[in-house]
Amino acid sequence: MAFTPPRPHRVDLCIAAAGLLGGLLLWGLGLDTRTPQDGLVVLESPWWVLPPLVMTAGCEALRRAMPRTALLVGWAALTLDTITQGSLITVLMFTDLVYAAVLYGPPTTARRVPWVSGLVTITFTVVPIAAFRKPEALLIGVVVGLVSLMPAATGWIVRNHRDAAEAARLRAEQTALLAEMDRAQAVVSERARMARELHDMVANHLSAIAIHSTAALSLDDPDTSKEALGVIRENSVAGLAEMRRLIGILRDSSDDTEPSVAPTLDGLESLVAGARTNGLDVTLDADHADTLPAPVELAAYRIVQESLTNALKHASPGRVSVVLRQPDGSLDILVTSPYGDRDGPSAPGSGAGLVGMRERVALLGGTFEAGPESSGHGKIWSVRAALPVPQGEPA
């Protein structure tokens, strides 16, 4: 691949053009920094002032694109300028090259240039004083410091501020990105929570409606159809009430409304009674503390509710057992139902209920298992959950 030289920055071209024109103006007016009578001029022709001026102006055009090369060539041009009648513009442009090398150069160059400038300044301060033994010799070190050390120190300070600003900008972008990720995660979590609540509240009623409507359609018995329609109406009314309550919570964004009461374990009796109304043979054996943390009670209630819904949709004829126990540090839930081929009508399932129960238990740091098991009376489907109950947790 062919080497492509870096293109000079537009601002650098303007600085180079302004420096060259200013140097030519001073040269045309004869305003040099030294005269042949000073004894320091080796090249006495005034034309010798132009080559260092042109070289330094060319370096100014590359102060950002090639800062190290521009500084080295500018140093050579300044050395040549010191043995001529000299130009103030050449010296000023060299100070800008030192500043640009520290500000725009690589980190190694930015660290070395101030040290080298400091050593050069010290050298040109100590050596003239030791050689000439005159206080005026100190001015040489002052001039060298103004030309090399001061621009390098200024460039170092500006670079540090620029790097700090860039780091702050990156931190701000990272913070904004993390905030956006947190917001997206919160939205996903809230959608999952809403999906669990909607499924647990409505699936039970809709499953009962589907099963009883199928039974009413398959049996040509007016009494059975009337009983099924009564169950269907009861579940549809309850389901609509739950839907309205959830929709009201989602729509109402004001802070002056009272929060809706979450289901508790005190409502298990009515939940089991509703399951019996829908045709399940359910027994409830609950032995737990009167007051439990609200998240634990809500999760336990929803697990029992969803287990009864699954039993209504999929279980074989037989007894469904709901057992709650509270050993030290946890609330254990066990729901069993007959497992096997179902003769009567059933409702389709999507598996969202098991996913929702597992998510609820995981949010509380508990354990969850669901699947078929063997028992003395054949196969059963069991749902086991253990919900941690922290000691001293307020209800």
Counted by DSSP, the helix tally is 10
Strand content: 5-15%
Radius of gyration (CA) equals: 44 Å
- Average pLDDT over all residues: 82
The overall strand count is: 5
The residue fraction in helices comes out at: 55-70%
Low-confidence runs:
none
Characterize the overall form: rod-shaped
Largest sheet: 5 strands, mixed
Question: What sequence of helices (H) and strands (E) makes up the elements?
Answer: HHHHHHHHEHEEHEE
End-to-end Cα distance, whole Å, is: 73 Å
Cross-sheet strand order for the largest sheet: 1-2-3-5-4
Helix vs. strand class? alpha+beta
Topology (SSEs and partners):
Elements: H1 10-29, H2 50-61, H3 67-82, H4 88-104, H5 107-132, H6 138-218, H7 222-251, H8 268-277, E1 281-287, H9 294-314, E2 319-325, E3 330-338, H10 352-363, E4 367-375, E5 378-388
Parallel strand pairs: 1-2
Antiparallel strand pairs: 2-3, 3-5, 4-5
Q: How would you characterize the overall build of this protein?
A:
The protein is α+β, with helices and mostly antiparallel strands. 62% of the residues lie in helices and 11% in strands. It has helices at 10-29, 50-61, 67-82, 88-104, 107-132, 138-218, 222-251, 268-277, 294-314, 352-363; strands at residues 281-287, 319-325, 330-338, 367-375, 378-388. Strands 1-2-3-5-4 form a 5-stranded mixed sheet, with helices on one face. A hairpin with a 2-residue loop joins strand 4 (367-375) and strand 5 (378-388). The radius of gyration is 44 Å and the shape is rod-shaped.
